[in-house]
């Protein structure tokens, strides 16, 4: 009889996971270009929207200024991300049941029809809608600049982090699960998952305060960004402590936690440097590098916190259902057969 673990691996779709990772990486490049646009204040370099993705090929190369090129490169990256998300959403819709079973994010019982799991198809739809809304926010930021100023730019920047986070989540959820023999993590494992989740909220709150200061020069944004930095450092230290206290064996979870801690340290250095360059006469190009890097590392911290949270729930809290519940081994075959029948019907 096929075991539960081997059947999960059989139903895993590596191409869809790789595409999800590619989409998240493309979105990170989009964030990079958006950060450069904000750093150099070139969001209104072209007051016309919408434009074709190939707009730069239609204009004279003697006309556009550097800001014009950066802004349209940002728009082109947005089109590319949109196409990537469309493919991802279609793949998730067609492989919803298969992914729910293969990812290890659902528990099955003796009745294969009573499957409980994530709705991957709706996660894909949500990601697609998020990208569409983000594109509209970017366009409205251009055409309504006269009336709303930087307010829509602020919303556009904050919402971009949520879209990026959603795509990072999909990249994690579509990955193949790992199974390690482990005892019940108990209270410590649940605490690690909760602290990781709280860290995600704190990191995003700090990003919002940073965007508020970056777009509007608000003193409240500056104060909030600084104060939440202390909270993020404390929460990250707690996550690291809980991970090593539990002696977690999942390499993915340990890598995510170590990456989170390292990124927070780098972010502290960049934050201090960003503050220093504001107070001294430093080369403008170096100021732009520091500020843009500070924004991008913040996005990576948010992504690392999300990955840590998902892996904590997946590898610690849910392991009792995935690896230690003796019922699953005897019930995996009916569920596997049911999934195969559904795939045959779909074909």
Textual characterization of the structure:
By secondary structure, the chain is mostly helical. It is globular. Helix 2 packs antiparallel against helix 7. It is built from 13 helices and no strands.
Structural class: mainly alpha
According to DSSP, the number of beta strands is 0
As a whole number of angstroms, the C-alpha radius of gyration is: 22 Å
Residues in β-strands, percent: under 5%
**Elements, N to C (H/E):** HHHHHHHHHHHHH
What about the largest sheet?
none
Number of domains: 2
| Shape descriptor | globular
Helix amount, in percent? over 70%
Average pLDDT, to the nearest integer? 82
Write the layout of secondary structure elements.
Elements: H1 4-11, H2 14-39, H3 66-94, H4 96-102, H5 120-143, H6 145-148, H7 151-173, H8 186-216, H9 219-245, H10 251-279, H11 284-317, H12 319-322, H13 326-346
